[in-house]
Amino acid sequence: MINQYEMVIGLEIHAELKTQSKIYCSCSTQFGSDPNTQCCPICLGLPGTLPILNEKVVEYAIRAGLAMNCSIATKTKQDRKNYFYPDLPKGYQISQYDQPLCYEGYVEIPLKKGTKKIGIQQIHIEEDAGKLIHTKEGTFIDYNRSGVPLIEIVSKPDLSSPQEAKQYLERIRMILLYIGVSDCKMNEGSLRCDINVSVRKKGDIHYGERTEIKNMNSFSYAVKAIEYEAKRQMQVLEEGKTIIKETRRWDEKSQCTVPMRKKEEAEDYRYFPDPDLPYIYISEEQIERIKESLPELPNEKKQRLMSTYDINGDDAELLIANPKIGQFFEETMMYFSNSLMAVNWIMGEGFRLLAEKDKETEIFPFTAMQFAEFLQLIEDETISNSIGKKVFEKMWNAEESPSHIVERYGWKQISNPQELESIIHEVLSQNQKSVEDYLSGKKVASKALMGQVMKKTKGKANPRKANEILKKRLKEKIS
Ligand code: ADP
Ligand code: MG
Ligand code: ZN
């Protein structure tokens, strides 16, 4: 029975650091240049060259480590990971084997109910390899990426569903963007991950054998790959067979994971300390200085937004995921006090129109002050909610302030009691049928009458006041 099993998932995330130059030479890391225009003897691995470590790489990696609650090693080294592949000209990748720069941390991810801490085993620095380009004419190699600095963030096997894995990936991405160490552009390959998956019977204390799915560069593929792979393993076990420890890849066409090779063990790589690179020493002062330079992190910001503005976790989550919108919201709150109303307009009409009109900019084309003015018009009942939607949309195109828009289109709400009385009087006399329905006990008929009031006023009647008057007049008819 498949539902007797549970999933165990651990991720190894590779993020390209956005330093100006590569990790061991001064070549540019700029993405998208012509192939092999950003290479030198060092990153091409020519004999006789010596690598020199870029200090920024260490600083960025420590930034990431601290943001993910890791301990930072005060002395660490770099190792050679030996293997042969055409995109790796030296025949080895400089990485870190048994002394990672950062270790034993965690990140907290939001779940449907509450949060969960996902352990970080380690974060280490390493160099990227070149890129193979497969074409009809043959395979080409671009070494521009060779020697671009990476951090590898290795989680503990603490994730137990594809959804948790996605939340975790998104959290890591958000943190890296907040602290400014990586662009995290999946389409440019600056964020990729390997997924380790195993399954075991619920309640079992031992982990099952795992497989590794290499090089995922999309969150949605990652979710599908985990779902597929876990189910496949459960079926294998159900048939009484065993899981083979292997490396697989996600095949988008067939929607399957397919075997690539037997999973290599550490000893296959003949790791050894790189004799060309000295130990890296890190002082407590340096760590302290980096710690102090960290910005407000996503979870801290979430807590602050929730307590300062009294909004719920889901809303806060959307605001931290969109920093520009978060900033806009906070600016709005300098001029307007009803946070719930501001959030509702941002999340509702705001996001809807952004997706429709301004997908790229990710921000509204008006100022927070204008938005606050708009909200005030609704709150003090100058305009109704439904007219509000029209004004809001007009704010996209017009240079005008919301009050001017209301003025120009004559959208001011009718709140004057005498004016409303006479409109309602007309509606009641013109809709005898609905009135009779109401009198015979069909209370919903009052809704139809209210609809008529709105129709007559083109949506401009103050709904609260009009409703009050309408109810009063109908009650009078009963008595
Ligand atoms: P390796 O030496 O093969 O790289 P690591 O111990 O470094 O193995 O772990 C790599 C990743 O695999 C980590 O993210 C870890 O959480 C995950 N992992 C380890 N064991 C399991 C398991 N049984 N099931 C799922 N993931 C696992
Ligand atoms: Mg590993
Ligand atoms: Zn170079």
Q: Could you explain how this protein is built, in words?
A:
- By secondary structure, this protein is of the alpha+beta class.
- It folds into 3 domains: about 1-290, no CATH class; about 295-410, no CATH class; about 415-479, Arc Repressor Mutant, subunit A, CATH 1.10.10.410.
- It contains 15 helices and 16 strands.
- The protein has helices spanning about 55-65, 160-180, 220-240, 285-295, 300-310, 315-320, 325-330, 340-355, 370-380, 385-395, 400-410, 415-430, 430-440, 445-455, 465-479; strands at about 5-15, 70, 75, 80, 90-95, 100-110, 115-125, 130-135, 140, 150-155, 190-200, 210-215, 245-250, 255-260, 270-275, 280.
- The strands form 4 sheets. Strands 2-6-7-10-1-11-12-13-14 form a 9-stranded mixed β-sheet. A 3-stranded antiparallel β-sheet has the order 5-4-15, with no helix packed on it. It has a two-stranded antiparallel ribbon with strand order 3-16.
- β13 (about 245-250) and β14 (about 255-260) form a beta hairpin.
- α2 packs antiparallel against α3 and α12 (about 415-430) crosses α14.
- It starts with a strand and ends with a helix.
- The mean pLDDT is about 95.
- Bound molecules: adenosine-5'-diphosphate, magnesium ion and zinc ion.
- Magnesium ion binds near residues 12 and 154.
